[in-house]
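Q: What would this chain look like folded?
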Amino acid sequence: MKSHVLGFPRIGSKRELKFALEAFWKQKITQSELEATASNLRKTNWQIQHNAGLDYVCTGDFSFYDQILDMSITLGVIPERFQQSAPLDLQEYFKLARGDAENNIPAMEMTKWFNTNYHYIVPEISTCTTPRLNAERLISQTKEAIALGFNPKPVIVGPLTYLSLSKGDGGYDVWEKLPEVLAVYCQLLKELAPYCQWIQIDEPILCADVSAQVRKEFAPTYERIVAAAGECNTMLATYFDNLDDNLDLAVSSGCSALHIDLVRGQEQLGRVLAQLPETMLLSVGIVDGRNIWKTDYVRALKVLEKLSAELGSERLWVGSSCSLLHTPVDLLNEVKLDPEIRSWLAFAVQKCHEIKFLSMALAASGDDSELRENIAAIASRRNSSRVHNPQVKERLDKITPEMLQRQSPYAQRKEEKDRPVLPEFPTTTIGSFPQTKEIRQQRLAFKKGEIGEAEYNEFIKDQIGMIVRKQEELGLDVLVHGEPERNDMVEYFGQQLAGFCFTDFGWVQSYGSRCVKPPVIFGDISRPAAMTVEWLTYAQSLTDKPLKGMLTGPVTILCWSFIRDDLPRETVCKQLALAIRDEVLDLEQAGIRIIQIDEAALSEGMPVKQREHGVYLEWAVDAFRLATTGVTDSTQIHTHMCYSKFNTIIESIAAMDADVISIESSRSKMRLLDCFRDFEYPNEIGPGVWDIHSPRIPSTEEIISLLKRACEYIPRERIWVNPDCGLKTRDWPETIASITNMVAAAKALRTQE
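A: My prediction, written as structure tokens:
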């Protein structure tokens, strides 16, 4: 019985790749030094998989920025606006993802990878796109693994998923390029096949809602794919949900093996077994690649025993549900974590070991002592009084429908006389301002005990004062306190809520060099004390302009944490909503009359299948309303969302009944607002006019153009002017320059009809 993972985290256990990338971008290290770091990380990752006893190591899963961008490079699918060399050098590669500030060329779009918190670079295809193979990355990494004595299994994104996630330039139908793209795929497989026994082809789109085009093209596409691989075996990898309506496609692919996700798609197993051809092996993802809880060995072994009896062990592989990209690297680094809670967890390194243990235990060669330890850990978590709080459950039971409604509808609220008086096209930011090196150093010194609480608090006050003054100088209409005291928009709140715990090195990649350290929700959630009131009231005391309080919403905290797997997500979200509701009411009582509750992850939390969206959106919207509707009409509620597919959820966004919503829209040049042509959004909206994920500074003229386009969709009296997202990752010079242009654009539009 073979064992493997679908991919391994590439950032390093101490974020080595992040620091090397950022040093390279700042010209502090050379390209050869960056490549040396990458080579060492690949070797380490392969050694981890090998030492665990897995039969194959993954190649091609390492990327300097994003695996979908890498596939675009491999296929030669590069937007025309970028200068190209053959092959594309590393500096040009990064310009695709980050933009070319020197030549004022915007970056490619970025959006969420299915319903995860990982962002991928969206391929752009036009009538002028001419795919051509660049197999250097995949072949060189595979050769590298072989030279080190490892057995490689290259991983590539399949053609149908790739095209399904691509966008056509100017409305171009990307499927017209399938013959050319497929020809390059086939060429790639032919060149890669001599170096490996297996090639993993990821088609997660088969677990989502596929288009009629995918169903039409699947059989002829995979007939060519399998033929191109020749004697090399191909594994069709699916994950993130059940195959459901697309099972017939998957089992008829002609591939040597099919991988299915039995963590998020356990219901499919019976149907898969009934339809699996005798010529096809089955790889089962039974170890969770997206969460950090230990695998329940007893439960997993029952499934594997059934499968082995039906298929035979020679037709069965054991693996991770999906790539381990979504989990931290190594639990052994967490020396400060509570020992009992640590005994409940497994990171990527430990998951590799779990996979091998399960394959060995099924062959009656597993370690009985490890099985006993696992049983004890699972029981400890299930029965722990630290996990269960009867008072939280009692409060949930007392939620009433009235708690989900504002006192008055928006049309009446906006006329409330006690609301702040603002000009047309009011300007604001999304919340955070640059987290400078000085802020990070002081936070670390406080964490290490090198400075006291009083000294640290005085430093934060100074920072808030400076940020408020700069905003006044720049002419912003609604200010924020800048969040210098916050390490992360989720972690900061989790640290003040009961039911959370935190790691020191539990980092996962969000995009590029951007890493996040999700909190762990291990128990019932409550708010012991106010979390933001002191800092926000201090900031408001420094200015006569309205200051916006910043909170993270319940759905986003849920989605950006490692959550419990012993409760429904809806229940955990309600617990969070009640905690945020308490904070909102305390802020209002303290005199903060504009409060933003960010739900950046609303669309990310949706199931991958559209037919399941309705149930999710109903409880997600209810959670937002539960958190926000206790305030009076004179308090203005804002929210913010990132990279949401608004056309599919616009009615649910309206149902949230926020007074103002700000959204990402600059990279798409306001195309995200197309949905507002057919749906009259009733409240106010701030379409992002500045892409903060790129170092490029937008001009005043560009922002005016974007806002004029927004006016085609939304009445000008309901438009706010703001960046796409928070400014935490930006430097001060570009922040000041961009806000200056943004404010100038708003002032210019106020004088125009």
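The chain has 26 helices and 21 strands.
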